[in-house]
Design goal:
The protein is built from five helices and four strands; from the N terminus they run βαββαβααα. It has helices at about 35-50, 75-80, 95-105, 115-120, 125-135; strands at about 15-20, 55-60, 70-75, 85-90. The protein is globular.
């Protein structure tokens, strides 16, 4: 028997969301000098407002050795199309930031293919994040 997923309320219209780690290592200019962490966040937020995706920050996501980490969460439509959250590591330069913007603006996971160079930065989520997602 097929299962159907029905989204109600705000979940039906949820846009692609970039979750930007700003915990212990990500976004820390002492640990990653030469990276404009505040500028990156501002660029993402400006592009989100322009293109209709959301940007939020969170505390430590876990893979600190791969900082900066950004999780690209699919929109409701992307999730219905099979998209799943994608973890991007080492997201510190302007090229990566621009590729994240392009992918999210195009719809993100499930709706648009990520830029090829960005795929090279995909990382596995920490084990506890994978366990939580199966509950």
């Amino acid at each position: 028997m097929p299962t159907h997923t029905f989204l109600i309320g705000a979940a039906r219209q949820r846009p692609c969301t970039l979750v930007v780690c700003r915990g212990c290592c990500c976004g820390d200019p002492r640990k990653h000098p030469g990276t404009d962490h505040a500028g990156q966040l501002e660029r993402l937020r400006t592009a989100g407002a322009e293109h209709g995706f959301q940007v939020r920050t969170t505390d430590c996501l876990g893979p600190c050795d791969q900082a900066n980490v950004i999780v690209v969460q699919p929109s409701a439509a992307g999730r219905r199309a099979g998209g799943r959250a994608t973890w991007v590591g080492f997201a510190m330069d302007d090229d990566c930031t621009e590729e994240l913007v392009q992918w999210a603006a195009a719809g993100g996971p499930g709706l648009a293919r990520p830029p090829v160079a960005l795929e090279l930065q995909f990382v596995r989520p920490p084990r506890d994040a994978r366990v939580r997602s199966r509950r």
